[in-house]
Amino acid sequence: MVMATPEAEPELFADYHRGAVASYERFGVSDALDSDRAQCADDTGLFWALTDVDGRVVGGVRAKGPLRSADDSHAVVEWAGQAGESEVREMINERVPNGILEMKAAWLAKDPTGGRHRAKMIARSGFHAMAIFDVDFCMATTAAHILEQWRSSGGVVAAIPATPYPNERYQTQMMWWDRRTFAAHGESDQIEAIIREMTQVRRSLQPGRAGLVGAATPHRSAHERSWPQRGNLQTMGDLATA
Predict the structure, then answer these.
(1) What is the pTM of this model?
(2) Going by DSSP bridges, is the β-strand pair 137-143/2-4 parallel, antiparallel, or unpaired?
(3) Burial class (CB in 10 A: 0-12, 13-18, 19+), 193
(4) Which end of the chain is more exposed for a tag (fewer CB within 10 A), N or C?
(5) Which residues pair with 59 in a beta bridge?
(6) CA torsion, points 51, 52, 57, 62, in degrees to nearest 10?
(7) CA distance between the termini of the chain
């Protein structure tokens, strides 16, 4: 697993985005993904790419944020005009002061041997970004069966009505990860991996260390917080392995 900014790894991001587009097309939900790579890159704080032993990208996910308000989130588009829209806005806005990242466009290539391990790597990826940006929350919206796969890392499905997004064939739900309480909800092997990988990220932020760099900031309100600038973030390779 490699974590980077689109600016630091433009070719890798292109491979990740190309795979995401193909995956969404295969499931007939292309409208749920920004097919314009440049626009998608501009909207991406960090992305993760999974590669096989031959260096081919076989999956990934990206993070949008940290969000400044509910209007920054794509979730409000997904619940627009649906039951639960006001709750979605309320949940996001009340968490903004502690920091929120929105995980988007997760995909995995079909692989009968490594699919389960790779899915678990994707499920815990948001915690790497929490360590970098010093935020408490990650959020994702997707079909219910996908969220079930992500429960392993301590995510909790929000108690709001599902929305028929991107179309009536799907019942999209919202999941939240809280880095202060995830250990009470996740699987033991995932908890151990999350703690280990967050420690690795924090070490990489220390002055003089190679890897992904950018000064983490203490918890402050969203108005006072100074987020690490994307231009200061480089690449961290081999963050996690299956």
Answers:
(1) 0.83
(2) unpaired
(3) buried
(4) C
(5) 50, 108
(6) -40
(7) 9
